[in-house]
Amino acid sequence: MNRQLTNSVSIILVNYNGVDVLIDCLNSLEKFIPRNNCEIIAVDNNSQDNSVDIIENQFPHIKLIKLPKNVGFGAGNNAGAEVAKGEFLFLLNTDTILTNNILPHLLELMSENSDVGIIGPKLLFPDGSFQISFSPEISIKGEFAARKLHKDAENKNELDIIEQDFQDIQEVDIVVGAAFFIRADLFNLLGGFDEKFFMYFEESDLCQRVRNEGYKILYTPYVSLIHIRGHSVNKISNKMAVEYRRSQIYYYHKHRPMWEILMLKIYLMFKFLSEYLKTSNTYSWEIIKLIFMYK
Question: Are 222 and 181 in contact (CB under 8 A)?
Answer without folding.
Answer: no
